[in-house]
Every structure is written in structure tokens, then in C-alpha cells.
Design brief:
The complex is a heterodimer. Chain A is 36% helix and 15% strand. Chain A is of the alpha/beta class. The chains are: A alpha/beta, B mainly alpha.
Chain lengths: 506, 95
Amino acid sequence: MADEVLLSAAEAGRLIAERKLSSVEITRACLGRMRAVDAGVHAFVRVTDDLALKQAAKIDARISTGETLGPLAGVPIALKDILCTRGVPTTCCSRILENYVPPYDATVIQRLRDAGLVFLGKTNMDEFAMGSSTENSAFGPTRNPWDLERVPGGSSGGSAAALASLEAPLAIGSDTGGSIRQPAAFCGITGLKPTYGRVSRYGLVAFASSLDQIGPMTRDVRDCALLLQVIAGHDPLDSTSVPAQAPDYAAALDEGVKGLRIGIPSEFFEYRGIRVSREIEDAVHAAAATLEGLGAVCEEVSTPHLQYVIPVYYIIAPAEASSNLARYDGVAYGYRTAAPPQDIIDLYERSREDGFGPEVKRRIMLGTYALSAGYYDAYYVKASQVRTLIRRDFDKAFEDHDVLLAPVTPSLPFRLGEKTDDPVGMYLSDVCTIAANMAGLPAVSLPCGYARGLPIGLQILGKPLDEATVLRAAHAFQQATSFHRLAPLQPPASDRGAAVEWACHG
Amino acid sequence: MRLSPEEVEHIALLSRLKLTDEERERMTTQLNDIMGFFEQLGELDTTDVPPTSHVIPMSNVLRADVVKPSLPVEDVLENAPDRAGDTFRVPRVVE
């Protein structure tokens, strides 16, 4: 294993700027690490090595002429295969988009190019981001680098696994009901879902448009702040992007948590009789104690409507998805049935039947039903009203608190195949993350402990557009602890529990 | 309220999905399992609660009505499953 893969993105960027490390060197190191471990982990569905080395050489050339670039210039990044990337197949890990090559860049991709980041490849995900284990990928599952028999979470499981297995120092994910935070927790990395509207969704393949948000996935909070800085900000191409200037996220990191008012909503620990597992509950409370030791003030708060998040989410998200995915009809792009169709309807139906996997079909059906004549008021409108009640709970909780502290997942990473025939059981693994999407709040997941050799995630939720305070609290926690500094040693698989400390600044 | 296999077939038609017999059977069971959760919402009185369709207080975001460049036709047609000249080719729609 080359030492360069142990660098944080901030450190790598600094060394590249100081010409002590070249972008080509670290890019080669990451590509080498991918060759060594990705057959087992399967974090990537496409490696763009030629593109990466070309981008890296260009950055090195610019730096050698004395040009000053941003703090992440020359640093390699893994991209969830849901972001349209000009000239690179973008599949959403679906057969229906298997051969789709976007003729344009998502705004986030454009910003990453402008900031000089190096594209290692596209990461695995649940098809159309629908899932919590990455097992719904049409191209085979990703495995958790901490234990290859277990899932990495989902839907951004490939991005999380790429970070944990030291294949990439940075990654991009997307989060509709927890798809950044839940895999971050399962893989022991740091992942932020920004405020709805903070990051442009232009070029993000749409799942549920009122919930989807792109965010940074990294190995520590400083890297998270730096990557958020690159992608955040208003975009005229996304009419739901917030027309507000993003603050300097890295600048505020070191201000500490003295006097910070932290609320701990009890409902995140128990959902209708299902209790968060003991070791997770203990780790989150221990994290609260750590933050109190640093000067924060913690107290219990209540968000009573949290007990309705599962039905609200599984009405609203499929309803929006059924509408968004109507565009896959085999006409303008994407898969078209090979069988000669009888008529246009037959062409739509056969193309969609062959092109979509079972979970996507399930959600299209569910959403179509919830929006259909006679049921729209009972399901969609009702769920949207309860969404208002969930938002009001948070408004109230944030009257007296700066951030909220909660678990990310109700259980430790589960085994591959454990929930694939149990959609309801799979849906329940999102129970702690959905609320932030419902209310559009920023929320970060970061490691706060280990049990049975598997990582545990801590969730910190903030007020709308207040990513800075969320990151500041998360950074204070990481400065006082070392959970985030561990990465699993892979291969071999028998090294479960063995860990390596990766280099850290500060 | 439980969905029958006939209703599931109807939803499949609205969804433009063809289901095999086995898929329809499995889908009926699974959709009913999931919809069991939906009944929980009946516990709440939401009479005067406005629905949330969007979390940010923005509406009618418009831009100036000026022509901007769009993607080149040839780039877009690169992804077409079937084409005829500058158009997408589909089976005959109108007899």
C-alpha cells in the first residue's frame, strides 16, 4: 500500500500545492489501491484511470508554472454514478441507463472540474438511489470494508466503501432519505447531507426532487468542509437552489463548542417499539458526554412526529419517483426493448419491464398508487400535511438549541442478503435519517465508536443553511476523539477488526 | 384497506410496467405489507395543517425570457436507441 493513500484530502492538497507531492503520484497510488482491494470491495462500477491521469498531469503542469489553485486541486475523488458526467457513462446502476453517456456535466461535476479535482471513477449505488444496502445495484453489491460479509449501507455505499478502503480520499454522494449518512455510519467515514437547496441538483439523476441533495463524503470533518465549499452555492440552472452565498466553512471549524446548546431528541432512539441497539445508544450518549466535556450543554428534547417518518417518506418519495422515472420510456435515451414492439405502449412497457430492477418497480407502483385518482388526498396530501408537523417539531426544537444529536442507524451493518427479501425491514433502517430530508435540514454522520469490529455513526442535525455550526460541532468531536482515524485493513478479509491509522493533520 | 391482484395489475398499467404472474403475486404481498404502515397516519388529525411540498420559502423562480444555447442536436441523438435523421424513431402512433 502506497503511503499517499493514507493522506487526508486537506493534507494531500497542501503537499501538492507545495510541490512536495504530485497529483499524478497520489492518483497512481489511489488507482493502485483500487487494483489491490476493489475486486473484494466493489466500490467502483467504472474506473476512469485515463481521465484521472490526464487531469492530474494538467494540475501538476499548472502548479509547476507557479499558478495558485484551490486547496483540493489535484486531489482524487470518487463520484457516485448518479451525477451526469460529460463523456463518462452515468448509469445510476440501472440496466435502463447502462449505456447512457451524458452530453453535459452536472453543476457539481463542473465545479469539481473547475476546482481541479481528479476523477477516479464512478461508484456503486442502489439502483436510482433506492435502497439502504447497495444490494439493489444492477451491477452487483458493494461490500463493507470492515467486514466483507456485511453491507456498506446505501444508497451511496460505493462512495462510503471507497473512502473506508482507502481507495479515494474524497467522494460525492447523494441523500434522499439517508443515502449519504447511513453508509457513512456503516463504513466509519464522515458524510454530510447539506440543507435542501444548498447544493445544485442540476444534472443529478432525479429520485425524489423535494428531498434529493448532493453532499460530500470524506474521512474527516475538515475534508468535508473543504469539499462542501467547492460544491455549495446558488445555481441558476436549479430553480430550487437557494440564492445565498455559502460562508467559509473551514474558517469556522476551530471555534469549539463552548456554550453550544445541543438537543437530544428521545424519539430518535425508539421508533414504535423498535429500539436502537444498545451499543449504538451507548456510543451516542458517550459522544454527548464528550461534547459536554468540551463545554457544550446537552439536554433532551422531543420531536413527537418522528414516529410518522416511515409512512410519510414511503408515500412522498415513491410518489415523486413515479413521476420522475416516467421519463424512462425507451424513446430518447436509455434502454429500449430488443423485441419488436406491437405499438408505442408496448415499447414503453417492455423497455421499463426489462430495464428496472424489483425495488425500483416497487416504488414506482407505490407512488403511482398514492397519486392515483381516489387515493391522492388520503395518501399524498395527508403525508404532506404530516410532513409539515415534522418540520414544526424541528422548528420548535431549534428555538432553544443550536444542533441536535442522534444516532444514524438503529443497528450495526447487517449481512448481505439479510434484508433483500424484506422490503419493510430494509425501509426501517432509514428511520433515523429520513427526518432531516423531510425538513430539509443539514445533517452529518461521523464515527463515534466501534462494536464487534464495526463502526457506529453519530448524527448531528442543524438549522437550515447552518452547515457551519454542524461542521464545527463535528470537528470539535473529532479533535477530541480518534474514531475517525481508523480505516480497516483490507485485504485479506480475515483481518476483520484490524485497523490502520491514517495520517491526520492537526 | 388491502390491494387485490387485479388492483395491482391496474397500477402496473398506470405505471407502464408489465408484470409476470409471479411478480404480480409478490408485488401484491409486498405493497400490502408496506401500506400497513400508511394506516398510522390516520392517528393524526391534520384538518387545518397546510401540506408541505417544498421546504424552502421560494416560489415562481423565473429567469429573463431570452434565448440561451441548448445542447447540440447531434450530441443528444448520440444516446437515442433509434433515430431517423434528426428525430427519435418510434413505432407508428397514429394509424
